[in-house]
Amino acid sequence: MVRSTQKEIRQRAPLWLVVLLALNFGLMTWNARDAASGQPVIKAWAQSALSPAQRVTTGLGGAGLGFFRGLAEMRNARAENQVLRERLAQAENELRDARQARDENERLKKLLDFAQDVSYKAIPARVVARDPSVWFNSLIINRGTVSGVDLDMPVVTPEGIVGRVVGVGPLSAQVMLITDERSAAGAVVGQLGQSNALGSVRGFGKNGLLEMRYVSGLETVNVGDYVVTTGQDRIYPPGLNVGTIVEYKPGTTTTPHTIYVRPGARLESLEEVAVLDYRPQQRTAPEKTLPNVDKGKTK
After folding, report:
1. Residue 244 falls within a domain, yes or no?
2. ∠ CA 41-47-53 to the nearest 5 degrees?
3. Ramachandran assignment for 80, one of left (phi > 0), alpha (psi -120 to 50 degrees), beta (any other)
4. I need a surface site. Which of 216, 228, 247, 269 has the fewest CB within 10 A?
């Protein structure tokens, strides 16, 4: 073993002194306490040194936690919004169904009231289809011969005439609308029995209007006047509403008026109608012969 010389010992003495002082200082610091808080000084220094890092770590952790919490809340809010949308859609559907049921009840009530007012048996019917080839000129109802429906029976609503039955089966019937160009009805402008503005209405084929013909140019007519049936066609009973005049071309003493009538019945949105069991009385032959008919036969 090599022994250290005195020169080496003197060279290392300052280093050992520094080490011993440092150890002494460390022991003193470790046991030293802060006068204000009573905590060890080392702990206080360590907290002071680490506090910025703790703040950064806490901030990052809080931000991350807040981010994931926000994602969870957004996911929950999205699910709640979907539930609310579904409930709103269901409520809207229920409200629409309730309105449709209310409107249908009102229409049926008006139809029943109308059936009680007329002097003929009324057969309520529902429109189930329209002829696709002539969308605005014919429709199908859910009543047929089983319910008493027959050919040429008039079809009406409380607002006015609709048309007549042109085809019938056991459980359904086809109705030609009054707007069809092949359809016609005897009519009068104004009140039946008090007006001489007699004529005939038929389908015009344009804008859903009717054309009224043969009204004398000497008769006074105006836009807004109402038109009713006369019963002369032997299809529609007298006194039923046809519609109102929306336009006319004045006639003269020798030419009739040309009158355009908007139907009272809402033909484009029919849902319920009534078929009238109207059977006009048969015309009887005159009992008396004309004068001089038998002249020359007897002598």
Report:
1. yes
2. 155
3. alpha
4. 269
Expressed as residue numbers, the domain containing 271 is 122-276
Q: What is the CATH number of the domain that holds 262?
A: 2.40.10.340
Closest Cα partner for 183 from 139, 247, 123? 139
Report the domain count for the chain.
1
Pairwise CA distance, residues 47 & 173, whole Å: 96
The model carries a pTM of 0.61
E strand spans, the chain: 122-130, 138-141, 154-157, 160-168, 173-177, 184-189, 198-203, 210-215, 226-229, 241-249, 257-263, 272-276
109, exposed or middle or buried, with CB in 10 Å at 0-12, 13-18, 19+? exposed
In a domain, 188, yes or no: yes
The answer to whether position 181 is within a domain reads yes
Asked if residue 270 is part of any domain, the answer here is yes
Q: What is the pLDDT of residues 60-73, one digit of tens each?
A: 666 667 777 777 78
Q: Over the Cα atoms of the chain, what is R_g? A: 50
Beta bridge partners of 243: 227, 263
Residue 20 — pLDDT band, cuts 50, 70, 90? confident
Q: 274 burial class (0-12, 13-18, 19+ CB within 10 angstroms)?
A: buried
Distance between CA atoms of residues 192 and 185, nearest Å: 14
Residue 33 corresponds to which amino acid? Answer: R
Indicate the pairing of strand 173-177 with strand 184-189. unpaired
